[in-house]
Design brief:
Rossmann fold, innate immunity, serine-type endopeptidase activity, signal, repeat, 19% helix, 6-stranded mixed beta sheet, Complement Module, domain 1, binds 2-acetamido-2-deoxy-beta-D-glucopyranose, sushi
């Protein structure tokens, strides 16, 4: 009897520790008071347990546990310190100098509000009242009670939870901060007073394990920083002289992205991370720079999604990388986190680039974006690898950046249930490096965060930028997808509703037939729903194409002839570009060249060959519907298909001709028939467009149709016989250029048109 017990015990031990068979971690002691937990892989080895608490609370003492191969949880649940949800606490505000804080509390919990008062003779700057927020930060800004001392820099104050050394605020003097207790410092430890009267760096803040940056804070700080990396500010001398715009930096930009997926067991989690990267690279493409990308996912293994070498060998494009990202799947992935392996991959790729580019490598800039919880439990510390990378980029064996600090910017996004700040913070690099570290809450919507990194007002010369998704499902959300659409309402003797498109900040393009002879600018209303309600824009003037003449071919059997059916409407005031209102790209401009990623020397012809290259070319146009607009999908019939398509024009009412070309000149594109949508009455004048790498290019304009199928509007299918004819903008360039490209006037900023042929 005794032996058999012993045997079964031995067998048990063998099974559980021998590797082949895995035993489970135990459920005992895992429960959390006031919260709950999730497991990534049940009670099996490698499973990650993540605790969750309601808003304003955080899990304590552990945030996560891992089931180790010895079927012990790490950390082990402690009987004497049961797992619970603790109230989020903000750093102590009683560090205020020369003032009072009320109420005086031992601990300030999420939801508590404090007010500040300065001693007499001192003036209060910053917030007079602050509330402790659920992310462990105080609302508002640091409260400072100061007296004018005649120093160059203002009193920088003491942020909650911190201590400051240094009380001289004159040029060249510095102040040094540290955080009290268990808090750690994010931001600049040392700040120096500059001649400009400003302190260097970024005001420090004291963070605890449960302090997070909000999505908005990340968008603002990361956005302003990455904009600096991508662009330089240059003065421009267009009509608003002295204005500064962002233009692309010269040299080559290499962007390396590594995303830790050791915690993303769930498909959805992983897909959201992929979507965030796609959003980010789409946003970056909005700067009209064309970076090369290295994209990795990693756990203890590295999965290379985009290899930067493919960019150099012209085997990859932005579009192909996005596709690869979308299609990327991992089957059984390893657990563990090896940040060093990811950085080593960056290092290898960089070495290859240097080898290829030789002395041109000097002109290369490198941006690292690292998303991880930082628990590099495998592969050792990544710091030596980062040090070698710095030496390579700084071109200095000692790692002294010299003047090359801005050639390597490394951003670190702490992400995950348990962030290992001490390991992560040293991985930042670059100019104002203290702005490169972010702590993201577990369920931060990264795609949305990245979508907000462009201050849309700052970037001009970016036609066709738009969101690819509608966040709200209402008319405001729709406007972010079609920020160029406008409603043209004519209230003259013959009221008419048309669509139009913003083609610059001052001009709307629409159809000439929307107007009648007696219409005046005051009869024309341009309606732009800009997110704060519908706005009517006053019209200064409008011009129809000089060749437009409806009766021109009456005696050839065409009652109404719509060739040159285009008109430009000039607004009295330029619109303010925003995510809700910005121009679409039109053919043959320099901006469109950039949007299409064509080399600067490309011509109009090159654009046309790229945009209208197929015999059936997929295009879209809009119709008024609720909310705002709906999108209609059509195929332009080109090449041999065109003749068949335009033939149907002969069946149209009011046409008595044998040759369809009398009514449908070469200036028209033809759509309709099987599987196409058909234009309705109010769609006239609207853009016929195509999205190219998520910039929208207007190719044509809705003019007329062979049958009046829908006068009521809405999205309707074509019949086999009905066809629509759209004015091809490539054929209207002289007219567009004569107005939009006119640089002999002082009224508006002209668009830059490119050559027609080489
Ligand atoms: C601070 O917040 C805690 C938790 O919500 C609450 O119980 C307490 O009354 C608050 N104290 C003050 C002074 O508002
Ligand atoms: C812009 O124009 C102003 C006035 O015409 C001139 O003084 C200034 O130098 C110009 N700036 C640039 C960058 O060309
Ligand atoms: C890039 O710009 C810098 C400064 O703006 C300039 O010194 C350098 O010559 C430029 N390089 C190229 C290749 O244009
Ligand atoms: C339009 O064409 C007709 C027929 O050719 C011509 O008589 C008429 O003068 C033209 N109208 C304009 C405004 O050019
Ligand atoms: C159509 O044109 C032909 C010849 O040009 C003419 O004989 C016929 O009357 C016209 N029909 C109509 C309905 O205008
Ligand atoms: C090239 C590119 O960026 N394509 C994306 C544009 O947006 C749509 C969503 O509307 C994505 O599906 C494309 O992949």
């Amino acid at each position: 009897m005794k032996t058999s017990v012993l045997w079964s015990l031995l067998l048990f031990l063998l099974l559980c520790t021998g590797g082949e068979v895995e035993c489970d971690c135990r459920e005992d002691g895992l429960l959390i008071q006031g919260g709950e937990y999730t497991l990534t892989n049940g009670f099996q080895t490698g499973s990650l347990l993540v605790y969750q608490c309601p808003k304003n609370f955080y899990p304590y003492p552990a945030t996560v546990r891992v089931c180790n191969p010895n079927n012990q949880w790490n950390p082990v649940p402690k009987r004497f310190s049961p797992q619970r949800c603790k109230h989020v606490e903000c750093p102590d505000p009683n560090v205020l100098e020369n003032g009072n804080v009320s109420p005086p509390l031992a601990r300030y919990l999420a939801g508590n509000t404090t007010t500040f008062e300065c001693y007499s003779g001192y003036t209060l700057r910053g917030s007079a009242s602050r509330t402790c927020l659920s992310n462990g930060k105080w609302s508002g800004s640091t409260t400072i009670c100061s007296r004018d001392s005649g120093d160059t820099c203002p009193d920088p104050g003491v942020p909650p939870g911190a201590s400051r050394r240094g009380n001289s605020f004159d040029v060249g003097y510095d102040v040094t901060y540290s955080c009290n207790g268990n808090l750690f410092l994010v931001g600049s430890k040392v700040r120096v007073c500059q001649e400009s009267g400003q302190w260097t760096g970024r005001e420090p803040a004291c963070y605890s394990k449960f302090t997070y940056d909000t999505s908005q804070e990340v968008s603002e700080a990361f956005g302003s920083s990455i904009r600096e990396s991508l662009t330089t500010l240059q003065s421009t001398n267009d009509t608003q002289s002295g204005r500064k715009i962002r233009i692309s930096k010269n040299g080559t930009l290499n962007i390396y992205i590594a995303l830790d997926i050791s915690e993303s067991i769930e498909e959805e989690h992983f897909n959201r991370a992929k979507q965030a990267i796609i959003t980010l690279i789409n946003k970056i493409s909005g700067f009209s720079v064309s970076p090369n990308y290295e994209i990795l996912f990693f756990s203890s293994d590295v999965y290379e999604v985009a290899n930067i070498i493919d960019f150099y060998e012209k085997k990859a494009t932005l579009a192909s990388v996005i596709k690869d990202l979308e299609d990327f799947k991992i089957g059984d992935k390893s657990t563990g986190t090896d940040v060093n392996a990811a950085l080593k991959k960056f290092e290898d790729r960089m070495a290859w680039i240097e080898e290829q580019e030789k002395e041109k490598f000097r002109e290369h800039r490198h941006v690292f974006l690292l998303f991880t919880d930082g628990a590099y439990n495998m592969g050792g510390s990544p710091l030596p690898t980062l040090a070698r990378i710095k030496n390579r980029v700084y071109m200095s064996p000692t790692g002294d950046p010299g003047s090359r600090l801005d050639y390597l910017e490394s951003y670190v996004f702490g992400i995950g249930a348990d962030i290992f700040d001490d390991d992560l913070r040293p991985l930042t690099a670059g100019t104002e490096e203290e702005k490169h570290y972010f702590r993201l809450e577990k369920d931060t919507n990264l795609a949305e965060t990245f979508d907000n990194i462009i201050d849309e007002n700052e970037v001009i010369g970016l036609c066709g930028l738009h969101r690819t998704y509608d966040l709200t499902g209402d008319s405001v959300g729709k406007r972010t997808v079609y920020p160029w659409v406008v409603f043209v309402n004519i209230q003259g003797d013959s009221p008419k509703k048309c669509l139009g498109s913003l083609v610059s900040l001052e001009f709307v393009l629409t159809a000439a037939h929307c107007f009648i002879f007696s219409d005046e600018p005051k009869d024309v209303r341009i309606e732009i729903e800009d997110g704060k309600g519908s706005k009517d824009k006053k019209v200064k003037t409008f011009m129809l194409h000089p060749n437009y003449n409806v009766t021109a071919r009456e005696n050839q059997g065409v009652d109404e002839f719509y060739d040159y059916d285009v008109a430009l409407i000039q607004l009295q005031e330029a619109i303010e570009p925003s995510i809700h209102a910005r121009p679409i790209c039109i053919p043959c401009t320099q901006e469109t060249n950039d949007a299409l990623r064509l080399p600067p020397s490309s011509t109009c012809k090159d654009q046309e060959e790229l945009l209208l290259k197929n015999q059936r070319e997929r295009l879209s146009f809009l119709t008024r519907t609720h909310p705002l607009v709906g999108e209609k999908d059509v195929y332009a019939k080109l090449g041999d298909n065109r003749d068949l398509c335009i033939k149907k024009a002969l069946k149209a009412k009011g046409i008595n001709a044998t040759d369809p070309k009398i009514a449908v000149t070469d200036n028209f594109l033809c759509t309709g028939g099987d599987r196409d949508h058909i234009a309705c009455t109010g769609d006239s004048g609207g853009a016929v467009f195509k999205n190219y790498e998520n910039r929208t290019i207007q190719i044509a304009l809705v003019s007329w149709g062979s049958q009046e199928i829908c006068t009521g509007g809405g999205i309707r299918d074509s019949t086999p016989e009905s066809r629509d004819f759209h004015i091809n903008l490539f054929k209207m360039i002289p007219f567009l250029k004569s107005i939009l490209g006119n640089d002999a006037q002082d009224d508006y900023a002209p668009l830059k048109f490119i050559k027609t042929f080489h």
